[in-house]
Structure formats: structure tokens, C-alpha cells
């Protein structure tokens, strides 16, 4: 017999663990978390490449409801973020609720019972009245679409699945990609490898990273007076919030960011030709801003070279660029990003009347307030459609989602509802507004990025300030939903009105 839980959480990364903590605090005790790996941590467990660290300060890239006065640096390394998540799991007694090694490969809603069934690759089924989908926006890495990829006979490593056994010393190494992962990897690789060639397709905007070890005095102060740490977090929050006026919309301040980026480039790169190669030609903010103080210096080391000729094909020996040069390589590092699920989870999600989320989202994902989708009741998406920030900490947005999901779930359980389904017209009007507002943002200014589908539909970013997003998520309107309760005496559905 399969037991029916009140809540199933899919994914034990930062978000899934945060959801468990918040739900437990709200009295939702009957919950289970399924995690496909054998450890918690999500993206921070998977991305262990040398130099992996968060490019948002840790005081802000953390939950406000989980105290950690001892972050070692302004921008903490991935391993420390993972440790923090492990500590959260133990401090809030979440570990015993996690089922490791369980990968969901299908979700279906049983309308009559008001229950979701999750199929898993191991064959085990989970049933739950509500589901929190917390598998993250970037769970799966992506090999690029490059001709002859499989013909290459040397060693291949993807940034998101680092091979710690590979010895780089004396090796000829290529790094393909110059995004957020690559700018962290390259400075570390040049210290280890014989020679590093960095294959760039599009130069990005790079701003200096003002990293430093947290002084012991500050750690002590944060531990003794938590309000001081909260104050520091608030200062960082508002600093980032202001930057939206330069990064989310193209304003005179965007020009200032461009000048800052160019000044950083000018200060760190003296060779005019290299500077030209590294100068971006798109509006700052359109792609994710890069934050690094050691990427440009690394490119100028004697054992490093930037290649900006397009890659024509891979060959058994390495990479052939369109200038006809064959680059012989021992190892290629693919810092080419992720298979972003802009069209939904990579498994079938079946809603009311057998509707398919993949079909409905084939042109790009759409949801109500990024969290609920009409026809898929009792399902709460974390980091869902149009919830991505371009200027602030993702976890600030996640906190808004967690509180909203807790409101929805406790309402559903408290009122003993069979289901809570957002009205189609409410969702449609919401998305019309979102897409109208997105049209005015830098993300739609013409560059190519993983924020957009192949057709240029923006299913990922929230077009506003974090403050606006949080206000939207604080406002749970029962009237936006079709709320259906099953009268256990008569067996007849009752529609509950706001
Ligand atoms: P990414 O931003 O998608 O960058 C991929 C890079 O690979 C780009 O430079 C891209 O060039 C290049 N590329 C892709 N396919 C290629 C091909 N066929 N030929 C040549 N070049 C190719 O991936 P990422 O750097 O892994 O970062 C992904 C996201 O992860 C980030 O936006 C961020 O949200 C997150 N991240 C966060 C942190 C952090 O510190 N918080 C660190 C790393 C990553 P084009 O630009 O021309 O497409």
C-alpha cells in the first residue's frame, strides 16, 4: 500500500530544504523529500569545479530565517555553501524526511482523489495531496551542439560534473565558454595546467569582485548580535535592488555600468587587441553580469590564450577553428551551461483531464506568480517561470515563493480542499502583464542568452525589483483560485468562495 503524504517535495537543494523547514514550522508535519542524488545541496553539490563560488555575497545568498554568522568570505566557495545546507538539514531535523537516490520521472494528478502520484525511476510511487517542485532551474548540464563532438578522442569534462581525478599538470587544455562558470574556472586552471586555450563566442560584461575573508571580529559580532548581520544583509539587499535600475532596464545608469566594465577591462588588460577581443557588444544586463577580478589577469598569463575564432568542428585531436587552425588538446573543459527547462520538467506532468504540461508549455513556460499553473492544482513550482532575478539574490525570491507555497498548502489542508486551482483568466492576465513589462527590459534587447527560448520567449526572468516580486508573493488571494472541497458525507463537490 502506498501512503498519501500531505506534501511531497522534489529536490533537496537550498530550496527544497527551505520548503521543508517552512512547512514544518507551519505545522505541515507529514512531508517527504525525494532527492535523486545521495546528498543534499543541489547545484552546489554538483558544481565542484575549481574556483566554484557564489557571485552574490553569502550574507544575501542565504535564507534570512537560517542564521549563519560564520561565512568565511564575502563570496563563499561552493563547498562551504554545501556545508551550510547540510547544517540546515541537521539543525532543523529534516534529514530523516529525505529519501535519497529517488528520481521522479512522472507526476500525475488524480482529480477525483485530489492527489498527485509521483513515479520514480526505481519503480516506487509516492502519493501526496500537494507537491513542491524544487528541482532547481539548472539541474542538468548541457553538452554543446558542436559538429564532431563525439569524434574528439581526448578527455572531456563538463564544468557541472568535474573530474577530480584528472591531473591537469603539463596538459594542453581548452575551456569552451566564457560565462559565469568559465570566469571562475579559468583562473584556477592556469595555475594547474601546462597551457590553457579559452574559446570565446561572446565576450561578457565583467565587473570586479570585491571578495575578502570575513574578519573574525565581524563573525563574532554577527554571532553575538544577530541584528547587525540582518542590517548588513539589508544593506546588501538594497544595494543590489538599486542596481536593477541599471541592469533590468536600459537607463542612463546602464551606461554607467558599461563604463565601469570598460574601466575594469582597461585597468586589467593593457594590450589593445586583447581588450578589443574582450569588449562586449550588447547591453549590460542582457546576459548575466560576470563578477571577477582574476579572469582578465588569468587570460594574460604566459600559459593562457584567448581564442575568439568560431569553433568550426571538433576533431579526434582537438578543436578546429574557422581560421583553419587545428588546436591539439589533451583535455577539453565544457563551461557551456545547462539544459534549462524553459518548457517544464524533463518528465511528463499530467494535470486535470489528462492535460500535459510539456504540451502547454511547448512555446515557453507560463505560470501564475511563477508558482501555480492552471489545470495542475496543488502543485507549487519553486524558481518557476518568470521568477529569475538579474540583479539580486535568487534566494530572496525563493523566500517569497516558500511563504506563498506555505499559505497555499496550509489553506488547502486546513480547509480540507480536494484541490486549489488557479483560474485560467487570472493566469492569462498575469502573463500578459509580465510579457508586456518584459518587453521593456534589457533581457529582450537582442542578445542571445539561456533566459530565452529558441523563439525568443522570456520564460525565466521577473521584470521588476525584488521588492515588487516579494509584494506579489505576500499577496495570496483565495479568490484567484478554484477551490473545491469534497463533502465526505454527500460525496458532492462544494466550491468554496473567497
Ligand atoms: P552560460 O552562462 O550558459 O555560459 C555558457 C558559455 O558557453 C557561454 O559563454 C556560451 O557562449 C558558451 N557556449 C555555449 N555553447 C557554445 C558553443 N556551441 N560554442 C561555443 N561556445 C558556446 O553557462 P554557465 O557559465 O555555466 O552559467 C550558467 C548559469 O549558472 C549562470 O547564468 C548563473 O545563473 C549560474 N551560475 C552562477 C554562478 C554563481 O556564482 N552564482 C556561477 C556559475 C554559474 P554565448 O555567450 O555565445 O552563448
Automatic annotation (TrEMBL):
Keywords: Monooxygenase, Oxidoreductase
Molecular-function GO terms, alphabetical: monooxygenase activity
Pfam families documented for this protein: Pyr_redox_3
Domain of life: Bacteria
Protein's name according to its UniProt entry: Monooxygenase
Organism encoding this protein: Mycolicibacterium litorale
Amino acid at each position: 500500500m502506498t501512503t498519501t503524504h500531505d506534501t511531497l517535495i522534489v529536490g533537496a537543494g537550498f530550496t527544497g530544504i527551505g520548503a521543508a523547514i517552512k512547512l514544518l514550522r507551519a505545522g505541515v508535519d507529514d512531508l517527504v523529500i525525494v532527492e535523486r542524488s545521495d546528498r543534499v545541496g543541489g547545484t552546489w553539490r554538483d558544481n565542484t569545479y575549481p574556483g566554484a563560488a557564489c557571485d552574490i555575497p553569502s550574507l544575501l545568498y542565504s535564507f534570512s530565517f537560517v542564521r549563519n554568522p560564520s561565512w568565511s568570505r564575502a563570496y563563499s566557495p561552493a563547498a562551504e555553501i554545501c556545508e551550510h545546507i547540510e547544517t540546515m538539514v541537521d539543525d532543523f531535523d529534516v534529514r530523516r524526511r529525505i529519501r535519497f537516490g529517488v528520481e521522479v520521472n512522472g507526476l500525475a494528478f488524480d482529480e477525483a482523489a485530489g492527489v498527485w502520484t509521483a513515479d520514480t525511476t526505481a519503480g516506487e510511487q509516492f502519493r501526496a495531496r500537494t507537491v513542491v517542485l524544487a528541482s532547481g532551474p539548472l539541474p542538468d548540464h548541457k553538452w554543446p551542439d558542436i559538429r564532431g563532438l563525439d569524434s574528439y578522442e581526448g578527455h572531456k569534462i563538463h564544468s557541472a560534473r568535474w573530474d577530480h581525478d584528472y591531473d591537469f599538470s603539463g596538459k594542453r587544455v581548452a575551456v569552451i565558454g566564457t560565462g559565469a562558470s568559465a570566469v571562475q574556472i579559468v583562473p584556477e586552471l592556469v595555475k594547474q595546467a601546462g597551457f590553457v586555450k579559452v574559446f570565446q563566442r561572446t565576450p561578457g560584461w565583467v565587473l570586479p569582485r570585491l571578495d575578502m575573508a570575513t574578519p573574525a571580529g565581524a563573525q563574532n559580532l554577527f554571532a553575538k548580535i544577530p541584528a547587525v548581520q540582518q542590517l548588513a544583509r539589508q544593506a546588501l539587499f538594497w544595494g543590489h535592488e538599486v542596481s536593477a535600475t541599471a541592469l533590468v532596464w536600459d537607463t542612463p545608469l546602464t551606461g554607467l555600468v558599461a563604463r565601469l566594465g570598460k574601466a575594469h577591462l582597461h585597468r586589467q588588460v593593457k594590450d589593445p587587441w586583447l581588450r578589443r577581443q574582450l569588449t562586449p557588444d550588447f547591453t549590460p544586463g542582457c546576459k548575466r553580469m560576470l563578477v571577477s577580478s582574476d579572469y582578465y589577469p588569468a587570460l594574460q598569463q604566459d600559459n593562457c590564450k584567448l581564442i575568439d575564432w568560431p569553433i568550426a568542428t571538433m576533431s579526434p585531436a582537438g578543436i578546429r577553428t574557422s581560421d583553419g587552425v587545428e588546436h591539439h588538446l589533451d583535455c577539453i573543459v565544457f563551461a557551456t551551461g545547462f539544459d534549462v527547462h524553459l518548457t517544464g520538467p524533463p518528465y511528463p506532468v499530467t494535470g486535470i483531464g489528462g492535460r500535459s504540461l510539456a504540451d502547454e508549455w511547448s512555446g515557453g513556460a507560463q505560470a501564475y506568480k511563477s508558482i501555480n499553473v492552471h489545470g495542475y492544482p496543488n502543485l507549487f513550482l519553486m524558481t518557476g517561470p518568470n521568477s529569475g532575478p538579474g540583479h539580486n539574490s535568487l534566494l530572496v525570491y525563493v523566500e517569497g515563493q516558500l511563504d506563498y507555497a506555505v499559505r497555499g498548502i496550509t489553506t488547502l489542508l486546513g480547509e480540507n480542499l480536494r484541490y486549489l486551482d488557479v483560474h485560467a483568466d487570472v493566469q492569462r492576465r498575469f502573463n500578459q502583464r509580465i510579457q508586456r513589462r518584459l518587453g521593456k527590459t534589457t533581457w529582450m534587447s537582442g542578445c542571445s542568452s539561456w533566459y530565452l527560448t529558441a523563439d525568443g520567449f522570456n520564460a525565466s526572468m521577473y521584470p521588476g525589483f525584488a521588492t515588487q516580486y516579494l509584494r506579489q508573493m505576500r499577496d495570496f488571494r483565495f479568490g484567484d483560485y478554484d477551490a473545491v472541497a469534497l463533502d465526505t458525507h454527500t460525496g458532492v463537490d462544494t466550491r468554496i468562495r473567497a
